[in-house]
Amino acid sequence: MVMYFLSVLIGVAFFQPLGGIFDRFDTLRLRWIANLRTDSLTDVVLFVNLLASRWTIRALRWGTIAALVGFRRWRHLFVFLASILAAEIVAYQISTLLGRSRPLGITIIAPWEGYSMPSRPLVGLAASLVGIVYALVVQGRPREIAKWIVGGVILLLVFARLYLAVDHPTDAAFGAIMGIAIPLVAFRWYTPNDVFPVTYRRGKAAHLDVGGRRGEAIRRAVQDQLGYEILQIKPIGLEGSGGSTPLRLRVAATEDEPEQYLFAKLYAKTHVRADRWYKLGRSILYGALEDETPFQSVRRFVEYEDYTLRLLYDEGLPTPRPYGIVEITPEREYMIVMEFFDGAVEIGDAEIDDAGIDEGLQIVRKMWDEGLAHRDIKPANLMVRDGKVLVIDVFFVQVRPSPWRQAVDLANMMLVLAVKSDAKRVYEHALESFTEDDIAEAFAAARGVASPTQLRSMLKQDGRDLVGEFRALAPERKAVSIQRWSVRRIVRTAGVLLLALVALLVVANNWAVFA
Amino acid sequence: MLVPACGGLYPQEPTCGATNANALILTAQAVPSATLVPCIAEFPSGWSYDGSRIGSGSAQFFLNSDRAGFHALEITLTGSCDVSNAVEVTAGAGAIPGVRVYEEPISLPPTFQVNRYLRFPGGCVTNRFRFATGAAATLALEAQQALSFVARSVLVKRAKEESGLILCGAEAPPCPG
Predict the structure, then answer these.
(1) Span B22-163 CATH architecture
(2) Taking the CB of residue A513, how many other CB atoms lie within 10 A of it?
């Protein structure tokens, strides 16, 4: 099939006599179909041909865009727009290159515009419909049904275009194939089902589906690599996590251990890419605030978290016991497994007494002493079990951090604890482990992005000006700027702006083709 | 960039004596009744081709001028045209047999705007001159040198020679369907 279309393309484009052969071949087929023409059938077919009208295609596209914006499915929206734009541009360029006239030797009985090969209306409709199927329809049976419907609609339109003799058979087939192939490849490549499933359930795009084949792969890999038989896999705490898929695994008893729960975080290449974009964004917005070097592979990504987990555990910090890394798909998906704090609740849902405040502060003190920074101190990462404060999610831990970063950890911990009590009480407890200068420095450093989003929204909900109260208690200190300027930051910012401008120009220049 | 900003204009020039007559054949297909098809003979200095928009019922070409401006001349082939507001003029030395010329002045210099209609059996070509402010009206005479016609019968013959198929419409045997 591909060879056939390539031969048509090359033949029509470069060899005039070959073009004539294809014209005659196509016209013969059109004449066969034209034998079916009757007045009533023509009316029906003209109605079917409205599928190829600009207004139908526009309605489909704008409807899809509105739906994707409504569902905040930005990645699918981007792929939808890009694939349609690509399909339209490629179709336009090929039609210009080939410059094939409309069918000769037969009466054309419907409106048309421009050169005939490939059929641009078919490209437009097929690309839009395939885009809809992959961007809006749930994978599985609904999508299979949608594919058949789309196939039927496209075939119907192909027949209509041939009946009306506005396209040659090769134009129509080429247009349909191109319109299907471009979005199909784009969606399969950039929004693979297992990583970016179309669902209408709540949850973040970063969370992977752990049912089906992946679920089986996880069970097999954990059994083979860690020696635990998984009885149940359950996604857990999805709302507090955006960088991985957190799971609770119920594992069968072994000779040494009873049946228990383990905690696991599943990472895929998409998380590495997300981390890369996140760091690029930070380096543009704030400069080299700290190490913004991105990870190059998901293996490195998970290895780093395993390292930090073991480091903190070995240092005696109240973090989960590491169980190791599980390879699900080499270089594509890995899972890190650790102790599950069964019975623990998020600090936001727990009661905190003086001992709890001390424990929280001691965690920061210990990290300071060991030359570490957690970098993501927020309620979702602090658990309480039997009155004991525990720390989870150590992926952002930094060894030998800057004094600024350590100061921010202290401020964030004090803020979390103050939300559960009050600023004065936490301040007094903090003075047992930190100096007034340390605290003053912490609240001079903790501003804006330095505090995690969850903590900032919790402070907002709380209503008290806890940051202001701490600053009033501590000695006065000039605010520490979080903006760092460098040539690298300027070059990156200029590069991103340039790319955005180019993208904008491409869209603007092709707007008529698209819209 | 990749596609002209004006939305899907085709770059092929409908040149009168072109080896590849696809643009002319498509133009002829747009208005099957037209016995003549407009084409570009030769560009006077400062004039250039900007693209075409061809579809069933009409074919348009756009010419730019370094003095008269962007799309200073728009040439449109249709099956017929309304000349009720225009006056017939003599075509002059370059008259084409069977073509009657009408002119409809819209505005005089400094913003020269005129519609010029060329009617012939089965078709009409409208030349819309829309010059930039300050451009001399004599540029219209220059622009007209660029335009000519090719007889449909010539294109019918070429289509037959190249593909063995009929370019349906005037000057050709009836087509099936």
Answers:
(1) 3-Layer(aba) Sandwich (3.40)
(2) 20
